[in-house]
Amino acid sequence: MYDIATRRRALALVEQGRSLNSVSTETGISRSALRAWKIRIEPLSRMARTAECSGPADQAAYVYLLGLYLGDGCISPHPRGGHHLRIACADAWPGLIELCRAAMAAVRPDNRVYILKRPGCVMVTSFGHHWTCLFPQHAPGKKHDRRIHLRPWQQALVDAHPWAFVRGLIHSDGCRITNWTVRNGKRYEYPRYFFTNKSADITALLTTTLDRLGVSWTRANRHNISVARKESVALTDLHVGPKH
């Protein structure tokens, strides 16, 4: 018999994407025991044990889609089972609509992706049985009214593809604009990025990732993050750029 702490440590290794063989070799716990334990673990652990829910087919596309989902996405149940993933995209950005559609298709190639027209925007939509596994942040109510944090397997993917995450967040709730000021009687223009979200947790996910990338940012106000330093804007331009 193994105690709860031992089981959780072993299952945490599975959560990292390790095979049952390697975890069994390292811990001395049989593969059959690892399969049989019914302790609640993170979605990636379940994915590792089942062929049906094998995780995102394209990890970089998933991280980008995660950023879009945290900004403008929702998941709703279908009455007969399964769920719809929907990402709202403004009509003004046809390039963003296509990027969202392509990312959704890359993450779950077997799921059909379609566009639902709404006033002033479209809902990029896909039905499937595993969107709740891939986006465990889903829950009733608005995101800024509840706790939002990444599961360890999600954070590992963000760490591997940080710019994809920043791009998704800025494409959903951010923009690149040209500001201006007057210096010595002359008008001076400069580009900057803004990100606006009422969720302190989602904002913190962005700023923590920017810190890791060496991008300087400031808090314009409670809900707004600004990237304005010339070298940081240039770096962000290389990996994000304006929406189109």
Brief summary of the model shown:
The chain is an alpha+beta fold and 244 residues long.
Overview of the molecule:
The chain is an alpha+beta fold and 244 residues long. The chain has three domains: 4-41; 59-156, Endonuclease I-creI (Roll); 168-239, Homing endonucleases (Endonuclease I-creI, Roll). It has eleven helices and eight strands. It has helices at residues 4-15, 20-27, 31-36, 43-49, 59-72, 94-107, 131-134, 152-160, 162-173, 200-213, 230-239; strands at residues 73-77, 83-90, 113-118, 121-128, 174-183, 186-196, 218-221, 224-227. It has a four-stranded antiparallel beta sheet with strand order 1-2-4-3. The protein has a four-stranded antiparallel beta sheet with strand order 5-6-8-7. Helix 5 packs parallel to helix 9 (162-173). The longest helix has 14 residues, at 59-72. It is globular, with a radius of gyration of 20 Å. Residues 38-51 have low confidence and may be disordered.
- What is the radius of gyration? 20 Å
Helix coverage percent: 40-55%
Task: Point out poorly predicted stretches.
Answer: 38-51
Category by helix and strand content: alpha+beta
How big a fraction of the residues is strand? 15-25%
Helix run count: 11
* CATH C-level label of the largest domain: Alpha Beta
Mind telling me the CATH superfamily name of the largest domain? Homing endonucleases
The shape, in one word, is globular
Provide the domain count.
Answer: 3
Number of strands: 8
Largest sheet composition = 4 strands, antiparallel
Mean pLDDT over all positions: 88
- Enter the CATH topology name of the largest domain: Endonuclease I-creI
Examine the secondary-structure arrangement and name the CATH architecture of the largest domain: Roll
